Amino acid sequence: MGYVAVTGGQEAIEASIELLKEYRAKGCQELDIQVVRDRMALLIDRIMSEAGLYAPDYAALALKQCEGSPEEAVFLLRAYRSTLQRNYVSKTVSGEDMHIRRRISSAFKDIPGGQMLGATYDYVHRLLDFSLKNEKEEELEAWRDSFVQSHAQNEYVTLSDTAPRVLDLLRAEGLLEDVEEDTSEPCDVTMEKLPLPAPRSAILQTLTRADTGFVSGLAYSDIRGFGMSHPTIGELRYGKLSIEVVYPLDEEESWYVGDICVTEVEGLMGERPDKSGIGVGYGCVFGRNDTKAIAMAVLDHALTLDIDSPTSDMEFVLLHGDCLEMNGFISHLKLPHYVTFQSKLDSLRHRKKEGNWK
Amino acid sequence: MNKKMPILTGRNITVRFGEGCPYCMTHTELEKGRCPFCHTIWAVRDVSFNLYPGEILGIVGESGSGKSTLLKTLYFDVPATAGDVRLTLYHEGKDNILHCSTQNQRYLRNHLMGMVYQNPMLGLRMDLSSGANIAEKLIAAGNRNAGQMMKRCQGLLQHVEIPVERMKDAPKVFSGGMQQRVQISKAIANNPPILFLDEVTTGLDLSVQAKVLDLIRTIQQELGIAMMIVSHDLAVIRMMSDRTMVMLGGRVVEEGLTDQILEDPLHEYTQTLVSSLL
Amino acid sequence: MNQRVGEVQSTDYNFAFLDEGSKREIRRSVLKAVAIPGYQVPFGSRELPIGRGWGTGGIQLTMSLIGPKDVLKVIDQGNDDSVNAVSIKKLICATTGVETTTDTAEADIIQSRHRIPEEPLREDQVLVLQVPNPEPLRGVSPHEEVTRQLHGDAEYTGIWVNLFEQLLKKGTPFRGAAHPVMANHRYIMSPSPIPRYDNPKRNQAKCLYLLGAGREKKIYAVPPYTDVESLAFEDYPFRREDMSGRKCRICGAENVYFDEIYDAEKGEHYYQCSDTGYCQKRRRQQEEQGEEKHE
Q1: B206-223 and B176-187 helices cross at what angle (nearest 10)?
Q2: C-alpha pair distances (Å), A144 with each of A117, A152, A239, A241, C283
Q3: CB-based contact, C236 to chain B, within 8 Å
Q4: 3-state secondary structure of A336
Q5: pLDDT tens readout for residues B189-206
Q6: Which of A76, A335, A358 to mutate to test the interface with C (most CBs of C within 10 A)?
Q7: Contact, A294 vs A285, CB < 8 A?
């Protein structure tokens, strides 16, 4: 059969959904959502970041529902999120108040408050550990207990009182580029179409929700030579931030509603040709995701440059990295295009008939 | 048309990049047009001129003297900071065209002006066919008859000695001289009474330069277009222009009949220019 | 021929999925779009359980307009039973419980992708079209800031130059579907990727046309009785796809837009109506007439 629309759509869809369940139900073991949440934590972080919804349990549920596809899991969370009513807006949080679990700087060896390597795969040799094939949960539990005892004193350290941000040192010395403070009301890219040119609030929101691979790839192209960033990581910190909302009846009071974990990066991006002082790029993403946060900082800065590079083209960077939009549009090519293709065929045949073919 | 009435007049045109400061607001003679205190650049400062129908007005000066910026301001590529420009053919010269709407500026560009840039990439879309490049000017002026436009494109290409069968080829596969000739045919596509030429032969081989200048001369004589020609090369100006303005640091330091300026330059800078030519 | 597609009305979600605030916001954008035919109104496109690029603009329009008593028709490629049409219908029905139909004449709201039904629409009907690329000037500039300015200035030289180039290189300015139109003598708009065959149906039409692009976050409209003109040079008149000499193998219709079917065994081309609702209706009428004759 040729180009005609498939009929029996209803039945086909239902059969397809059955088949999906068959794929999902493969194997023998029930997949506990808690296990997904706790043992696939980095994947959960990535899903929450791209979905723009901090909800580890829902992210785990989504992953279970879609056979672990990040693209589908983000989609599920986004679609769910768009039905939720927005009751409160939280108070502004600052990275300075972070309960830090990891903090590094590649600009200075010694930083006030000290560097804290924390948990990172950076220095792990990537060798497949075959012993994990037969890992026993009881052994793990015993290991956990001893670990907790020995590290009892090494829980979160609040550095905000004693440790200024690394960049504050440079700022105090006047070595950073002068930036005008922007006190305008931030825009909300989930509620309105991205305004162009986009204000910084919209840029940062779009980048932090963007697809991890897209952000990293673009930042890579920028550093490698298609842009002109030569970043040094002033500071990368990861930890917990407490979220509070203003008590509706008394603006002086606020409620603590929970914690979120974020990775925050302040990148030193080099000097502009026409300005003195080091330019700064900022990145902040949900969860543990150093690469995305650094890449975001690179792009944040690249977008302020007036040069002819893909990473400095605001519409190029901001309009093509949304997980739902890019995957939705690419996958829509699977939809029937019989009518439009028929129109194309007509044009080609007409040209042949009229002798406009070579 | 009355020969004595200018077709285009400019009065006190100023193009400034920067806010200016008490020093540079009052001191007009700045090295390279740049204020030593606030670093404001006075690209064009208080320039006035008359352009008469059918004449060629040359503008000569070193790089950075503001001559290209002046042309681009008249063609609305660069906004003027201040000044007054009137076109006799537009509302009988009653309106300062620097202040008219973008739509009206587009109208003026498409009907009454043509521009040939030094860099053909500014005037042409390099990967579009030459035919469509020229047709762009016709379409912009409201033509919607494809056959008529095809014919006009063919005629124009012949006029500038480009084989008609190259109409489907994109300028990017052409030589520099051919690209300039495509630009010229595009610029004159709507028979504008005014043509601006910005360093059109810079960067071309000498023999090609001569051909292109020859072509411009011929077109000027055949069509009677008034032209403003910008060049850093006094030889080009001597060959082409009836009258000449000499620019330095954004200002006009000397103007007059080209012969007169070459024979008897008054300003020190012009004297250096002329002596280097001889 | 009315049928219920959604068996259960889900109580987990608001009527028509979106919350009332979002629906109101979309309707406000629709009003603006209707007031300025062909002008692309930006809107805060919401995320839906259906993929971006799969009709989310159209769905949001339908969801914001639909009431419990409305009768809905959804088609894709003219086909009521195409997978995506079914999927969209399922979502709308599950959250509204409205009745659906395949008969164009019975529907209050028709959501469509790539086709305008063969049967002319009435003043009391709304046709919602799904649009992937709402910007007809995307081929002139990839930048939204630039194209927005060009629309503002009604500066459409670029799109005409592209048509001229197409004519010069390929001998015809008509390339395929989504051929741009001029709405109300002011805004050039994309008709959505409908075949050129359907373009003239929009001129001075009786119904309201709403076009929604969910991914690109734009809504635009053609109100009833509006001049809509397909772009064409004076000496190369607008040409629709040539459907002459073709006949539907099912209902015998001529002068409609056809699907082309290739029978590999016989090596022959067959044609059948792309608008399946129209085809079915003709068949039913033929059967009824046949029965009458029989009696």
Answers
A1: 10
A2: 20, 12, 21, 25, 73
A3: yes
A4: coil
A5: 999 999 999 999 888 888
A6: A335
A7: no
DSSP states of C156-223: -HHHHHHHHHHHHHHS-S--SSS--EEETTTEEE---S--GGGGGGGTT-SSEEEEEETTTTEEEEE-
Task: Give the Cα separation of C96 and C100 in Å (integer).
Answer: 11
Distance from CA of B173 to the nearest CA of C (A): 16
What is the pLDDT confidence band of residue C11, given thresholds at 50, 70 and 90?
low
Enumerate the domain spans of chain C.
Answer: 20-133+187-192+200-227, 242-295
CA angle C279, C283, C289 (to 5 degrees): 145
Q: Which long-range contacts (CB under 8 A, 24 or more apart) does B67-72 make?
A: B67/B230, B67/B232, B67/B247, B68/B118, B68/B198, B68/B199, B68/B230, B69/B15, B69/B43, B69/B44, B70/B13, B70/B15, B70/B44, B70/B230, B70/B247, B71/B115, B71/B196, B71/B198, B71/B228, B71/B230, B72/B198
Percent of all residues in chain A with a pLDDT value above 90, rounded to a whole number: 57
Contacts of A81 in chain C (CB under 8 A): 47
Enumerate chain B positions whose Cβ falls within 8 A of a Cβ in C.
102-103, 106, 128-129, 131-132, 135-136, 139-140, 144-150, 167-168
Q: What is the pLDDT of residue A259?
A: 95
| pLDDT-derived band at A276, boundaries 50, 70, 90 | confident
Secondary structure element (H or E) that encloses residue A340, with its range: helix A338-354
pLDDT for the residue numbered B236: 92
**Which of B131, B139, B146 has its CB closest to that of C235?**
B146
Distance between A248 CA and the closest CA of chain C, angstroms: 22
Shortest Cα–Cα distance, C269 to chain B (Å): 35
CA distance A154 to A71: 36
Band of pLDDT at residue C10, cut at 50, 70 and 90: low
d(CA A244, CA A254): 6
- Alpha-carbon distance of A212 to A295, in angstroms, equals 9
Residue A8 region by backbone torsions, left for phi larger than 0, else alpha for psi between -120 and 50, else beta: left
Q: Do C173 and B131 touch (CB under 8 A)?
A: no
CA–CA distance, B130 with B35 (Å, rounded to integer):
43
| ipTM score for this prediction | 0.89
Distance of alpha carbon A45 from alpha carbon A73, whole angstroms: 12
Q: What is the pLDDT of residues B214-261, one digit of tens each?
A: 999 999 998 899 999 999 999 999 999 999 999 999 999 999 999 999
Question: Which residues 6+ apart lie within 8 Å of C281 measured at CB?
Answer: C103, C104, C119
State the residue for tokens 């009315």: C2
Q: Is the pLDDT of residue A5 over 80?
A: no
Q: In Å, what is the CA distance from A40 to each residue of A288, B131, B233, C129?
A: 12, 60, 71, 41
Mean pLDDT is lowest, of C29-33, C101-105, C220-224, C258-262, for: C258-262
C262 vs A351: CB contact, 8 Å cut-off?
A: no
User: Which residues, other chains included, contact B117 with Cβ-Cβ below 8 Å and sequence gap of 6+?
Assistant: B123, B183, B198, B200
Query: In what side-by-side order are the strands of the sheet with A254-271?
Result: A157-158, A99-104, A232-246, A254-271, A278-286
C273 has which bridge partners? Answer: C258
Q: Give the burial string for A277-304 (b: 16+ CB within 10 Å, else e).
A: ebbbbbbbbbbbbbbbbbbbbbbbbbbb
pLDDT band at A163 (very low <50, low <70, confident <90, very high): low
Residue/partner pairs of A21-26 with CB below 8 Å, 24 or more apart = A23/A67, A24/A65, A24/A67
CATH number of C20-133+187-192+200-227: 3.40.50.11310
CA distance B81 to B94: 20
